[in-house]
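Bug #77: duplicate submission created two jobs. Keeping one. Sequence:
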Amino acid sequence: MTPMTFLIPTLTAIALTLAMLTSAMAVETITLHRQDGRAFEIAVDAPSGMACRGIALISPGAGGSAKGYRYLGEAMASLGYLSVVIGHPESGRRALREHIRGQGLREGLADLITEPQAYEGRFMDIAAAKSWASARCRARDAILIGHSMGAATAMIEAGAHNRLGLQGTDAFAAYIALSPQGSGPIFPENAWTGLRKPTLLLTGTRDTELGGGSWETRTEPFAGMPPGCKWLGVIEGATHMNFAGNGLAQRTETLVTQTIGAFLEARERGGCMPPPRSRGIEITAR
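Kept job's structure:
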């Protein structure tokens, strides 16, 4: 199948914006306990005034917490999903501080994002959060969204081969990866050939790799995936931290949430047909 290049639809953008303005979000912070007994926090955005469409779990990047990624939580709730932002203890703020002490930010981050035990903890957090959310939303649709280290988490969970000895369960209906990693210390070449589920990848033209590599390395997973409801979106000028909702990120946040809405709508219609062109983000579909 020949990849198709296009941009997000204006009507979907308007619909999602209106939904976010008119939906009253019920935000709640809850402490859960996972399989090994360790406690962790989740921040919950519940859809208001509509039936639950499914659950959306959001896995932050290294150093992130349940208090971040509010724009994603609100957007998913506005689309009808019970949205859960997960705080991962083994790779949250305290863990990052411990890793960077004595070796610097870049080295500490590189160490943390390649630590198998940190991902094992993340998978336990995700399993517990999924079980909690599924008991409160009768719809079967379940989506895993991740940024940076969370994107690596999502890709491993979806079945990507990795250098860390980890095995995902492919337990979600669709995956969304913001700032995904190409081949390197986490993933070998051709790591994504077995990913069959609908997948949306998003990056930006200023979303450089931790080691200084070009943002274009983040498009490698898309090139290596088999066709079938796979989208790659590249936002002009977007930085790595823009996807986390930090800094002057409103434009990026808007394009991210609009694209997610368009992707999920196309997936539900069947065929994942491309939307009409618009400005600000170039999308390739296969």
